[in-house]
Amino acid sequence: MSRFYSITHKDKFSVGRVQTPSLSMIYRRDMEINNFKKETYYTLDIITDDITLSSDRLNDVDLAKQLKSDVPRKVEIFDFIEKEKITKPDALFDLTTLQRECNKYFSYSAKQTLDYAQSLYEKKLITYPRTDSRYLSDDMKESTMKLLRDVKVDNENFNKIFNSSKVTDHHSIIPTLLSLDFDINSLPSSERKVFELIRDKFYAAVSSNLIENTTKIIVKVNDYEFTTNGKVVIKKGFTEHLSKYTKNKKDVALLKLNKGDQIDVKEVKIIKKYTKPPKPYTENTLLKAMEVAGNENLEKGIEVERKGLGTPATRAGIIENLLSRELIKRDKKNLLIT
């Protein structure tokens, strides 16, 4: 295709059925950012001794001022909603999700992650990395259970990582039994980080669900809702195995209130805000966009051989090709058009 375009237009072109639409996505995102014009909007905060309730977006400052003047000295609780939220662990890694998370946590490029994973595979510490499956086959249960030898896990979701119908040529990426007796600290730092992430993802995938208690307080003024939200962890579950990769969010416990209760208003503030442009692609977000490209045009229930742009094994090469040809450039984590 590149040769055809080069001969046709008498110039050197690099064109490909995956490369060109991938480049187009980065270009369109850059144009959205460059052409973005920020808009001013407002929110209103009702501040009490214990909580702050916020309105939705208000586009008119006069409306915000009028609403502020209409807030009474005492507001009545319109609703108090309390629910238990259950979050299941993510599935195991395929190559694309491994590359995305390594870019997110370690700033590794897709190619670097593939190279490190390939090296770990050649050392027989992880299974085959160039896979597009996030499940294990049903006949692997006995051997997989042995991987939990050295760790205490509540394997509530153990059986859910097995699904032979979602395994094609290769199953998801997990540690090998040989890794159990290998000194991981002897690995280069870059490879060790990738291995530990694969291992911790495996531990998390088989562990119990995250359980949280969520609360929402709603107040109405002139039919405009003001809300505040709380969340308290009841059971950490799988998140205990991933804590070193994420920021520790503090619990937000709200005062227990009932519908019809009244609370004193201490202050009402108008908050001026601005809309924000879309963020540039990183390798993490570009890989995701490549993976799901065109999915919205597929009919539900219709199986196709391949979805998205490229395959897990080729997407890193496509990004590197765009970089080497200087069609895009890296700016820290961001991928920008040249």
Write structural notes for this entry.
- This protein has 338 residues and is an alpha+beta fold.
- It has helices at residues 2-9, 19-34, 61-70, 95-106, 110-122, 141-145, 189-206, 283-292, 315-324; strands spanning 40-47, 52-55, 74-87, 210-221, 224-235, 262-264, 267-274, 281-282, 328-331, 334-337.
- The protein has 3 domains: 2-35 and 280-337, Topoisomerase I, domain 2, CATH 1.10.460.10; 40-88 and 210-274, Distorted Sandwich (Topoisomerase I, domain 3), CATH 2.70.20.10; 95-206, Orthogonal Bundle (Topoisomerase I, domain 4).
- It is built from 9 helices and 10 strands.
- The strands form 2 sheets. The protein has a 7-stranded antiparallel beta sheet, with helices on one face. A 3-stranded antiparallel beta sheet has the order 8-10-9.
- The longest helix is centred in the middle third of the chain and has 18 residues, at 189-206.
- Mean pLDDT is 90; it is low at 4-11.
Question: What's this entry about, in short?
Answer:
By secondary structure, the protein is α+β, with helices and mostly antiparallel strands. It is 30% helix and 21% strand. The radius of gyration is 25 Å and the shape is globular.
Low-confidence stretches: 4-11
Q: What is the terminal-to-terminal distance? A: 22 Å
Shape: globular
CATH superfamily of the largest domain, by name, is Topoisomerase I, domain 3
Which strand order spans the largest sheet, edge to edge or round the barrel? 6-3-4-5-2-1-7
What is the number of helical segments per DSSP (H or I, 4+ residues)? 9
CATH topology of the largest domain: Topoisomerase I, domain 3
Q: Structural class, please?
A: alpha+beta
Q: Give the overall average pLDDT.
A: 90
Q: Give a count of the beta strands, DSSP E runs of length 2 or more.
A: 10
CATH class placement of the largest domain: Mainly Beta
State the share of residues found in helices, binned by percent.
25-40%
Fraction of residues in β-strands? 15-25%
Total domain count: 3
Query: What's the SSE pattern?
Result: HHEEHEHHHHEEEEEHHEE
The radius of gyration is: 25 Å
Largest sheet: 7 strands, antiparallel
